[in-house]
Structure formats: C-alpha cells, structure tokens
Amino acid sequence: MTTQTPARSNAALFETARAVIPGGVDSPVRAFGSVGGTPRFITSASGARVRDTEGRDYVDLVGSWGPALLGHAHPGVVEAVREAAWRGLSFGAPTEAETLLAQEVRRRVPAAERVRLVSTGTEATMTAVRLARGATGRDLVVKLAGCYHGHSDGLLAAAGSGVATAGLPGSAGVPQMVAAQTLVLPYNDLPALEACLEQRGQEVAAVILEGAAANMGVVPPLPGYTAGVRRLTAQHGALMILDEVLTGFRVGPAGWWGLEAVEGWVADGQGGPVPGSTHSARIWPASTAEASWVPDLLTFGKVIGGGVPLAAVGGRADVMDLLAPLGPVYQAGTLSGSPLATAAGLATLELADDQVYRAVDAASAQVGQVVSEALSAQGVAHRVQRAGSLFSVMFGDSAASSGVHDYEGAQAQETWRFAPFFHAFLREGVALPPSVFEAWFVSAAHDEEAVEAIAAAAPAAARAAAQA
Ligand code: PMP
C-alpha cells in the first residue's frame, strides 16, 4: 500500500480536485476561468479575512458571494449553529425555528405575508415562477438580460454571473421547448417591456427581476424603472417577482425593496449616492402601505441563511397559499428549514441591526473610494457602480462617461483590465470576486484595518489594470 503525502499547495489541491470534480469546483466561477491562475483553497475564515491552504491570509471581498454580512464565522452565529447541532441535525418535521425565521422575514419585509423556506436561491426562484404560473394559468416568463436567478432550466437564458463570465448565451441541456417559455428583454428598458406586454401580456405569468442587478457587475435600476415594472405587470395581470437572493437583508434591513420603495433610494447617474447618505435613521417598514411599490412575490437567499444553505420565497398570502399542502402548486424539500440553517439565519438577522448596516455602508463607501482613487491616479477610465452597499468596478471610457445600464453595456466594458487587476490585488493579499461580472461584498467586519490593507494594495492593482 502506498501512502500519499497530503497535498498542501493550492496548485496540488486543484490538480487532485480536477481528477474527481468537474473543473475542480462545485460552482463554475470558483475555478478562476476568466482570470486564469489557480484558485485558492480556503481552510478557514474569520471576520474580514480568509486563509488558504498555504497559510496566506487575504482580505476577503467575496464574502461567500453574499451570506457573510457580519463577516466570517461570527461567534454569535457559530454558537447558535453549534447549539442547534447538538439538538439534532435534521428531523424532516416542523420546528419552531422555521416559524420564527418566517416571522422575522415578514417583520422586515411585510410584503412577504407568507414565507416558505427552501435551501438555495435557485429553488426559491424556481418555486416563485411555478407559483406565478399556477396563480395565473399562463406559461411565459419575462426575464431581463444580465440578471441571474439561479440555474433552473427556464432562467438560464442571457443570465449573468457565471454564465456571463464564461461568455455563454445560456446552457446546453435546456430543452428548446422550455427555453421558449422565457422571453428575454433588456434591463432598464421600460419601453421594451411595455411593447412586449402589449403584444403577449395575456400569456405572461410573471416578470422576474433582481432587486438591483448585481450579476453583470452592479447595475442599479434607473429611477422609475422598478416602479414601472410594477405598473406594467399589474396592468397586464402578470405577477412581479423581485429576486432579492443577493440584495435581501444585505443592502438594508428590508433589502432592495426597503431601500428603493420605502427609503426612496435612486441611482443618481453617477454610480448612486454614497450609501448611508439617504438613510440616517433606518427603520423597518411597518407595513406595505409605506412603500411606493410592492412586488407580488419575493425571493431571498444568502444572508437569510448566514452561510448555511437556506433560501426562501415569500409574498402575497393568496398566491403563496396555492403551495402544497394548501393548494395545487407542488414544492417540497427533504432538508428545507434545516435546523442548522434556521439557527444560523435567525442569529444572523438578529445580529444584523442598524449598526451593522451602517458599518457595511461605510466600509463599502470607503473601499469603493480608495479603489477608484487608485485607478484614477493611474489614468484608468472606470466607474464604481453602486446599488446601496453593493458595488463593482466597470472599466472603460463609455462606462466612465455614461455608466452601464444594461447587459450590453456590461459586456462592452474593457473587461481585459480585470484579470491583471484581480491578480495584483491577490498578490497583495486582497481577494476580489474572480470575475468582472460580480459584485464586491464587504461585511460589518471590514474595519479600518481591512480598508487600509485594501488601500495599500490598490495602487499595484491599478498599475496592473493600466498596463493591461
Ligand atoms: N438569484 C440571485 C439574484 C442570485 O444572485 C443568485 C446566486 N448568486 C441566485 C438567485 C441563485 O442562488 P443559489 O446560488 O443559492 O442557487
């Protein structure tokens, strides 16, 4: 028998992984496909930092792609999960924690009159679409180019995130008949939606859109766009599904809906106001009556599970009550409402108070500013685009002068500047999301020290971007 020396370098682990896992990863963007090089194999994370298998620490701007609002391994969350684990990992029976979490979601987002817990964002949007079809008796779904709603068959057309990173129009393996049920329209283009609904409105079950698009880089809705989607869907009897998997409980206590429809946040055409400037006293909206628009259904994920697989669909009681066992729309899950996930989610939301959102806002503003200043100092045309505390850097003159408002614009930026920019940051100990089409995620644990480390690394990254 031969004993293998344990592989410890990132490269060795990646090679071993590739022999057994397609591409060496369980989610495509992790493979560094568009930036090249070797992904870092993470062994632990704490606060604003992750550590790789070679023992190097990085200031982390991936944040597990969203869940880590409080920073990694927050003691309050870890302790809640540990306690829950001792009581049993999974029962396949109802628990009180599920009700408490559903109540907390409804307290923050009163439009979620009923909440069903699932395990992934993909399941949440898939369920929302099925519900909309069940409620309306119509088949077509309108999605917007560059928005990503998970990897269910019908929602992969012109999707952002990893689909954009890999430069794919959609996915193989999606039957033509299924793809034909999805109509793709440009984001931020109300006339296009109006024309589409004029023509085929009778067949459209739902329009699904991200709270703020953040899977083609961050592209906030233009003033009036989301309210316009609400008006047009209502006019044509289609449901509006607001996908807050990424934005929910991250950009504010009540997600994007709270920020835009309650607090009145608008993109100002210059990348948006600095977060925090529009909301000095954050409040939970007491009822939907305080909002300028209300979606029929919402989907949540990421932060709601605090880093453990959990997501949710919520919305109008009359629509949600069509779900089995009450109604004819089937949906189920062996691990739905997992005790570990509900414990992590409840602890996370309990800890995510005003102070946390203010800290995330502040860190986001600072990081965006130091990176932008470094790029400007090197003469790199760019724009930091924001949607509340979410932001990303768009490269190129056109992005700098007029901003990016849709998928076409996102793809037209100087994408080649990103890989050298990314790798220079990585060499300096800062881990960005490995794609120009992803948002940067800061947390409440991104303190002054973390921001200083990013500021110290930024000039080298900006030089690399300038020389690309
Ligand atoms: N919707 C949005 C807006 C997302 O950003 C994502 C994931 N990035 C999803 C849905 C899918 O969630 P999951 O990866 O948990 O399936």
UniProtKB/TrEMBL annotation:
<feature type="modified residue" description="N6-(pyridoxal phosphate)lysine">
    <location>
        <position position="302"/>
    </location>
</feature>
<comment type="pathway">
    <text>Porphyrin-containing compound metabolism; protoporphyrin-IX biosynthesis; 5-aminolevulinate from L-glutamyl-tRNA(Glu): step 2/2.</text>
</comment>
<dbReference type="Pfam" id="PF00202">
    <property type="entry name" value="Aminotran_3"/>
</dbReference>
<dbReference type="InterPro" id="IPR015424">
    <property type="entry name" value="PyrdxlP-dep_Trfase"/>
</dbReference>
<protein>
    <recommendedName>
        <fullName>Glutamate-1-semialdehyde 2,1-aminomutase</fullName>
        <ecNumber>5.4.3.8</ecNumber>
    </recommendedName>
</protein>
<dbReference type="InterPro" id="IPR015422">
    <property type="entry name" value="PyrdxlP-dep_Trfase_small"/>
</dbReference>
<keyword id="KW-0627">Porphyrin biosynthesis</keyword>
<keyword id="KW-0963">Cytoplasm</keyword>
<keyword id="KW-0663">Pyridoxal phosphate</keyword>
<comment type="similarity">
    <text>Belongs to the class-III pyridoxal-phosphate-dependent aminotransferase family. HemL subfamily.</text>
</comment>
<dbReference type="InterPro" id="IPR004639">
    <property type="entry name" value="4pyrrol_synth_GluAld_NH2Trfase"/>
</dbReference>
<dbReference type="InterPro" id="IPR005814">
    <property type="entry name" value="Aminotrans_3"/>
</dbReference>
<keyword id="KW-0413">Isomerase</keyword>
<comment type="subunit">
    <text>Homodimer.</text>
</comment>
<dbReference type="InterPro" id="IPR015421">
    <property type="entry name" value="PyrdxlP-dep_Trfase_major"/>
</dbReference>
